[in-house]
């Protein structure tokens, strides 16, 4: 499986993104009722924000992943924890499919983490998934995340978790 990432284009990727973020399996993305225009507006705002980047992940050439990288000192977690230099926030979404492949999502999160740690400035990845999203907690643990504590965000109760480069490399058994 080959994974590569390209910058998301809010207009060109609008149909694809809309189908992904409004799918029932993307409930934790909290965009179930979003229109195509809502999606374009949201991702255009992200593209214009210097502290946020969004990417489409291509698996063997086919779009299959939405990855967001953000600076938690400026977005999402402001005032909820003490950011360190090199902290990078991350969200990811695997495209819905009618033919799931066992182990695919774990390979995806491993590729996402490898991509984030490919930047030498990234020291630690920070995530804040919904406390009730047990599936993503297991995936996070598999790639080295360690939960710190529950936090209350405006839209959800979240599990603040961290993964250093060393924790990731130890969890997946290879150098990032």
Shape label: globular
Radius of gyration: 15 Å
User: What is the end-to-end distance?
Assistant: 16 Å
Number of helices: 5
Main sheet properties: 7 strands, mixed
Output the structural class. Answer: alpha+beta
Work out the strand percent: 25-35%
- Helix amount: 25-40%
Low-confidence sequence ranges: none
**Mean pLDDT across every amino acid position:** 93
Strand order, largest beta sheet? 1-2-3-4-5-7-6
Count of beta strands? 7
H/E element sequence: EHHEEEHEHEEH
Describe the structure.
With 176 residues, this protein is an alpha+beta fold. The chain is 30% helix and 28% strand. It contains 5 helices and 7 strands. The protein has helices at 14-21, 36-48, 104-117, 134-142, 165-172, and strands at residues 3-7, 52-59, 62-70, 87-94, 124-127, 146-152, 157-164. A 7-stranded mixed β-sheet has the order 1-2-3-4-5-7-6, with helices on both faces. Helix 1 (14-21) packs across helix 2. It starts with a strand and ends with a helix. The mean pLDDT is 93. It holds the Pfam family Acetyltransf_8. InterPro entries: Acyl_CoA_acyltransferase, Acyltransferase_MbtK/IucB-like. Pathway: Siderophore biosynthesis; mycobactin biosynthesis. Residues 6-53 form the Acyltransferase MbtK/IucB-like conserved domain. Acyltransferase required for the direct transfer of medium- to long-chain fatty acyl moieties from a carrier protein (MbtL) on to the epsilon-amino group of lysine residue in the mycobactin core.
């Amino acid at each position: 499986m080959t994974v590569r990432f390209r910058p998301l284009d809010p207009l060109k990727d609008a149909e694809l993104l809309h189908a992904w973020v409004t799918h029932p399996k993307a409930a934790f993305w909290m965009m179930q009722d979003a229109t195509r225009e809502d999606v374009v507006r949201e991702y255009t705002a992200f593209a214009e924000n210097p502290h946020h980047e969004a990417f489409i992940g291509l698996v063997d050439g086919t779009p299959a992943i939405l990855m967001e990288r953000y600076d938690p000192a400026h977005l999402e977690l402001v005032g909820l924890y003490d950011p360190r230099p090199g902290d990078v926030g991350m969200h990811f979404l695997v495209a819905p499919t009618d033919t799931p492949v066992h182990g695919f999502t774990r390979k995806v999160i491993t590729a996402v983490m490898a991509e984030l740690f490919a930047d030498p400035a990234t020291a630690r990845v920070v995530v804040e998934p919904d406390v009730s999203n047990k599936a993503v907690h297991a995936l996070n643990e598999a790639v080295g995340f360690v939960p710190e504590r529950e936090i209350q965000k405006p839209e959800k109760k979240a599990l603040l978790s961290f993964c250093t480069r060393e924790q990731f490399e130890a969890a997946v058994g290879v150098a990032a």
